[in-house]
Amino acid sequence: MAQFTDKKGNSWSIVLDTNAIETVRQMVKNRDGQEVDILAIVDAGDFGTLKKDIVALIDTVYTLCLPQIQEQFDEAGFDAENQLLYEALPDWKMATKLKKSMRWFASLLDGPAIERMTTAFLEAIVDFTQGQARKDVLATMYQKEQEIDRYAAEAIRQKAAVMTVRLIEKIPSQMEQAMERELEKLEATPGG
Q: What end-to-end distance do the CA atoms of the chain give, in Å?
């Protein structure tokens, strides 16, 4: 079972089964308004599809974790920090509760938590797939995608380091030029 923690340390489990996949297909749309079809993602081996649409990814994981979220949301709703969630709309229609619990869940996800959530979601996809050969291929694709992400992050860090060094190298010459201009101004003024 794939698990991740949010920024407050709450643990969430992601389990894929055919019912969960169908629920996601019915409830979640991507940024283009298309249904999110986890099986199509598995068949295409295209993990990047949801990673590029972070809102659809969060909505997908929200849907997969909905029973856990509702339980923790109900518990959290009565503590002082979250009391306003319950007081703002006293009419407990299910749609209102779902919208509020979705916002609450999303508020628990910062950058590192989204990274952990993404990893857990991809692990759940690999766990769900049928047949060892297919699992091996998906696991390899998942590992390659993680390598690409790490390579891209390292390339960005290296580029930032080079840019920083270049900037630092320019500072002394710019300071020297500014000092020379100021000295010239002082020399040019009477009594200077």
A: 79
pLDDT digits (tens, 9 = 90+) for 70-128: 787 776 654 444 444 444 444 444 455 667 778 888 888 998 999 899 889 988 887 88
Q: Kindly state the helix (H) or strand (E) to which residue 72 belongs, with its residue range.
A: helix 66-76
Within 8 A by CB and 6+ apart from 146, the residues are: 119
Tell me if 60 sits within 8 A of 36, measured CB to CB: yes
Both structure tokens of 86:
């319950």
Distance CA 88, CA 65 (A): 24
- What is the distance between the alpha carbons of residues 155 and 33, in angstroms, rounded to a whole number? 33
Tracing tokens 């991809």 back to the chain, one arrives at 122
Dihedral angle, C-alpha 89, 92, 93, 98, nearest 10 °: 80
Please give the C-alpha separations between residue 134 and each of 127, 131, 169, in angstroms, as whole numbers. Answer: 10, 5, 52
Q: How far apart are CA 24 and CA 61, in angstroms?
A: 9
- Of 54, 67, 111, 115, nearest to 123 (Cα)? 115
pTM exceeds cut of 0.90: no
Contact 117, 109 (CB under 8 A): yes
Mind listing the pLDDT tens digit for each residue in 113-138? Answer: 998 998 899 888 878 877 766 667 66
DSSP state of 17: -
